[in-house]
Every structure is written in C-alpha cells, then in structure tokens.
Amino acid sequence: TPLFTERLTGIAPAGHPFGATAPTLADWAACPQVVVSLGDPGTNPVAARLAALGVTRRVALVTHSFAGALSAVRRGGLIMAVPEHLAATPEAAGLARFALPLDLPGYPYGLLSHRRMRGDARLAWLTGLFGGVLAAAVPGLSPASHPGTSSGQGR
Q1: For FRET with 60, which of 16, 69, 108, 153 sits at 20 to 30 Å CA-CA?
Q2: How are the residues of the chain apportioned to helix, strand and coil, as percentages rounded to the nearest 5?
Q3: How far is the C-alpha of 90 from the C-alpha of 93, rounded, in Å?
Q4: CA-CA distance, 141 to 125, in Å (whole number)?
C-alpha cells in the first residue's frame, strides 16, 4: 500500500556555488559527488537517467551509509543527491540545498503486507494512520495519490 511519494534534491557544503545558483547538467555532472548504494552504484534512478541522456557524472565516493555520505559532503566539499526528507533533517543542517538539473520521477514508500491481509479493516486503518503521520511529520513529502486504505488493497 503506498504511503507517500519521495523526491530527490541536491545538497552541497555551505557556501558552495550550487547553493546560490542552480547548476546546469554539465556543471553538476562535473562536480565530485557522493553516491549511497547498497549494491551496484550504477543501478539507481540518477544513474539510469544519466545513462539515458548519455551523461557521465564524476563519482568521488560510494558508500552504503547516508550518515557517512552527509559527513563527506560537509567536510569533503562533495555534492550529493538525497531524498528530500533527509535534506530536511538535523543531520543535514547547515548544508545548502539545490534543485537537481535532472527530471527524475518521485518514488513511493509503502507498506507491504501478505495478500491474505487484503481487505482487512485493521490493516487499512493502520496504513492510513502511518500515511497521515508520515505526511504530517516529514516536510516536503507528498501523500500517496492513491493510498489504497479505503479499498483495502495491499501490495
């Protein structure tokens, strides 16, 4: 069941030029970047979009940790594409935010349940509660366009 849709934004160290002026795709791709990956760093939405455009970005660091990546941005002068909700956390305080020069779709966060739970009113209530709390608590999140709570459609 979809809960909300997340989008990516750019972050840079305080005082970085991208914090004042939106970068062009060429400038952004040339700037050293941090990529967070739990597997192949070439299989994320940013890499897929760049490949479709025939653009290569300058990846300086690949890590599995957002906390480590934020530290690299803050201390290493690198830039990074992050979920908007992460850019709004205290851990990202003091970093400059900028719009990515890529047209990237949002991606859903959802609640998974077993198919035998479809149509369960209690699960529908809980899913609606989660979606409402998350949408209210996390700045910049869009509620899912079709939360599925009233119909009981689980995924």
Answers
A1: 108
A2: 35, 20, 45
A3: 5
A4: 20
**Cβ contacts of 49 within 8 Å, gap of 6 or more:** 102, 103, 104
Structure tokens at 103: 């047209």
The Cβ-side half-sphere exposure at 65, using a 13 Å CA radius, reads 6
Per-residue confidence band for 149, with pLDDT thresholds at 50, 70 and 90:
very low
**3-state DSSP call for residue 9?**
strand
Give the pTM.
Answer: 0.73
The sign of the torsion formed by the CA atoms of 119, 122, 125, 126 equals: negative
Q: Which residues contact 22 (CB under 8 A, 6 or more apart)?
A: 98, 99, 101
**Sign (positive/negative) of CA torsion 30, 35, 96, 107?**
positive
- What is d(CA 148, CA 155) in angstroms, rounded to the nearest whole number? 9
The whole-number pLDDT of residue 141 equals 58
